[in-house]
Design a protein that fits this description.
single chain, about 625 residues, alpha/beta, five-stranded mixed sheet, Restriction Endonuclease, 3 domains
Amino acid sequence: MSKKKRGKPRTGKTTKQRRRERRSNGARPGTSPSMAPKRLPTGQPAPLFAIISDHAGLTALSHAERVQRLGQISQRSALHALAAMQSRLDVATTTDWSEVSVERELLTEVGAEWANRLSPMIGVTHRLVPPRSVTQLIREVFESCPVTEGSSGVRDIETSDVIELVMSITTEHVSVQNALDSMANPDPADVGAYIAEIEAYTSDETIAAIRQHALDDMANFLSNEPVKIELIKALTYDLWFRPWPARVSDARVGANPAEAFELANGIPLLDVMVAGQIISEIVSSGRFVVRRSDLVRAGATECAVEFVLKNMAYSANDYARRLRRDREQGPVTNQRYVFTERPFLRDDDDTVFALRYQWIVDRFFGSQLYWQTFFSFGPAKPGSAAEAFSLAMNYAFERVAGDILGRIASYSSKISRVVYESEMREEWSSTKGEAPSVCDFLLVAGRACILIDATNHHLSARLAQGLADVSAYDKDMDTSFVESKFNQILSTARLIREHLSFGVEANPVFIPYVVVPNNGLANITSVRLDWITRSAPFEELRGSARAPVPLRLSDLALFEGLGEAFSTTPRDIADLLGSWTTLQPGPVPVSLRELLDQLGLPAPIPRSMLRDQAVLDALIQERRSEGGLPD
């Protein structure tokens, strides 16, 4: 097989391992009774491999063939079918793990022989409906389906159309990295030749392959990741409704992030969340048409409804214009920001159609709140209100990370203390008053020093959507992590070895992490391999340190939940924090959540998060009960 035809090189894992890892977002149920308390609230299980057209014995439809098929189908019919299907899957994935039942019901509705072939695979070895395939199909529906109802030759979509189109898009997606992945049973000789070519790579070729995969896999991971409304609400309450940290003093951003939202947008954040709560209830019940009168009657203010219509919805023409612009930017495989920013199709001044439950949850309660506030403050020039807000949110993010670390330490008998940046600076400042370069947090556990730096670094739109090239990815990794966070962590390790401060025992060992937002860099296999290739600065600590690992805020909260549930003698959460990167059974690193899946451990939600979610729900309900009346 020529290099031109073979697809992009892989990172040393099998096709099944890569697919599974890229979609890993939770822990499989089936934990042993001795490890899993009854009724322990947990995250969702890890999805399986994606079904492609060849599994059904069908030839995948090309883009041109999909356009032709969709040209015969009513746009409203297609959008309703896709919204209903994906929203059912979103709710199932983030509540009771019943998405397997939903997918089997879809195949039953198809009723064809090829569907019967697929049914035994669902939930055992494969999944039917990857979210990013549905996202691209929604895009193609907007681009190709007739808008006019009742036109000659235009019909409603059928479930068989939906599944065949989804499988065709999935086939297209998996073949980008390797054409062999588009076949259910590729020729063993071709697979062997492919592996042989990978094994013949030079060091430079291997590094280039890893970094290309990190870029591709990260966009894929973010496109497929489910959003659990309870977790999103908990983190949002902790981040948005508490007062700013003491070092935030700019009056332009108010007393807390929620007040900053109101100053930037001219509407209280809770009023917007009331509308979001009502809409999420409507959509989760299986209804997708949302009317102004329904929202106001249920407790939303007129101003909040108008805000939704103006900032979160597009008309069909507006969508067409934005989607054309997306095509001009590059491949649409992972482009989704138009939908996460505008998750509603606007029919008229009083009615919208909800496109997907998860996009709605994120828009009202998740990461979209940051961007809605940041851009509404105006141009981000030096000294601007937008810049002041961004800096303040960085401080708030660090505080949230520090609070979680404090709770983790409280569940450990081995962690003797949490040391904060200010303490380290004071301890190690020179006689000339020069402040040393240190990380944000140090967890001391005897010889073990868990070094953590928190950075509120969001991936750029081009990186997150797979539009950037490897050079842009390299620049972001070097600028945002290697030249800053890695060096701060390394400087801290040097100072610890020199002074043995804060009760650190002799011959310390170092376990470095970088905490990032939930829409930031994940610790998937290709990213961890890439960070290993970038860890040259840590060579001086060889034998006493490993390469840094990124931890998203939800991963840090997962450690809190694990410590709360399982950190009892002889188990201790410090052991998992210190050694989870060496626990995987093979030489290739895996993500934290995939490791828990392999170990048969759940992903417990901390009680603190359940309390925060309950507090935010109570605030929303109180505001809602006012029926839109002014304060």
